[in-house]
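Proteins fold reproducibly. Take a tokenised chain:

. . .
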Amino acid sequence: YATTPAFKHQLEEFRSEIQRRDQEIVAMSAKMKTLEEQHTDYQRHIGVLKESLSAKEEHYTMLQADVEELRSRLEEKNRIIEKKTQTALQATQEKNRVTNEINELKDHVDIKDRKINVLQRKLELQEAQKKAHVIASKSSEETNSLKAQLEEQKRQLEAQRRQLEELRKSVDGRSRQLEEKEKHVAELDAKL
């Protein structure tokens, strides 16, 4: 077949078109490959982000558990402090009560001391009167009466002395209790 210039021209155009299309296909393939690589990178990045998110969620859960544990321990500490404070308050109140009792007992001891001194003076006076009566009068009746009065005064004096001794023992006991209470309160204060 004879090749006319028009046919040659058309053939060249087809070749150029095919070459252009091939170049487009190569460019599209390169672009698709780039997009696929980007997609793979994105997938990897998403995977890393998911792992990071999962690790952060796990860390958050652990932190939440730590916070709950700390809150529980704090509440327990507050309960212990409240209990110790209440115990210290009760011990202080008990100490004050014992102190008041001791002061009252000391007042009673002072009163008893004064009564004993009065009785002692009365006894001494009656003994002097008895001696004077014996010298002045030999009346056995008066002497017996004075002896009886003297014995009664002695009994009263002895009874007052016994009561005074009991009061002193009670004061000593209360004082020891007070010392124990004060020591207990000091220990509680040191622990708070």
